[in-house]
Amino acid sequence: VSLASDPVADLRVLVVSTDPAHSLGDALDEDLRRGQGKPIVLTDPLTGGRLSACEVDAAAALDEFKENLAAFDINRLADALGVSPSLLEGLGLSEFSGLIQDPPPGLDELVALSNVLDRDDATEQYDIIVVDTAPTGHTLRLLALPQFLDGLLGKLISLRAKLSGLASSLQAFFGNEQAQQRAKTIDDAVNRLENFKDKMKRLQQRLHDSDTTRFVVVTIPTKLGLAESKRLVKELQSQDVSVSDIVVNQCVGGGKDVVDEEALKLY
After folding, report:
1. Residue 248 three-state SS
2. Cα dihedral 219→220→221→224 (10° resolution)
3. Which residues contact 3 (CB under 8 A, 6 or more apart)?
4. Which of 6, 10, 19, 29 is catalytic?
5. Which of 266, 239, 243, 246 is nearest to 254 (CA)?
6. Is 120 a catalytic residue?
7. Mean pLDDT of the chain
8. pLDDT at position 99, please?
């Protein structure tokens, strides 16, 4: 709000919440759910239309991820190719069928975040994008997921040669037209995954680019809060994520009274 409230700087700011327990709308006194994951321009006189906000639609993003992988579901692909599911299991597709049914925690928020940041007009429309993440453990999983997905989807895409070979073998049993249709089924599925993999790669690069992205740790002045923040900073640094600032909330000001000063130091 402070960044968008300066008429001289005239910065266009977008705030994005990835926390499953969204509270950004409450803080801004705006029903962000009506945006269904898309940014809403705030019309208050203080920011003058320079501030936009959104709460990611994790459920819709998870559906998108499952749809991208659905074409590689063993039963669905076997039906499309006209082969036995056991034949596809031999190619190693069972791992990905399990991923469709039980995706890793945080995946929905990650995909939803990429949908917001990967828009063609995102960098053109906004000068600053602030991402309000969930607490420590959830955020670390969120940052690690792009690399995990890159490796996993890379394995899946490498199956293209095996699946294409399978489609070619089917040509001996089906006519050219049917064989071409089955080959197209495989190509379309792999192309969708490649596009999704590229999107995750761009998000990973953006999160780790210290020239354009910085991580601000927000904590409170308690023993547990500080200990957790130290671990978070250490883990972020190990992942090559740039930590530029640490903000400590709930600090109380000291008075002239000596007793108050001593109490503040202990606090």
Report:
1. strand
2. -80
3. 9, 11, 13, 128
4. 19
5. 266
6. no
7. 78
8. 67
| Residue 60 contacts residue 21 (beta carbons within 8 Å) | no
Residue with tokens 């969204």: 22
Cβ atoms of 42 and 52 within 8 Å: the answer is yes
Rounded-to-integer distance, Cα 223 and Cα 175, Å: 71
| Helix or strand holding residue 86 (H, E) | helix 85-89
Query: From CA 136, how far away is CA 191, in angstroms rounded?
Result: 35
Instruction: Determine the pLDDT at residue 164.
Output: 64
pLDDT band per the 50, 70, 90 thresholds, residue 179: low
pLDDT at 78 over 80: no
Local confidence band at 14 (pLDDT 50, 70, 90 cut-offs): very high
DSSP string over 122-190:
HHHH-SEEEEE---HHHHHHHHHHHHHHHHHHHHHHHTHHHHHHHHHHHTTTS-HHHHHHHHHHHHHHH
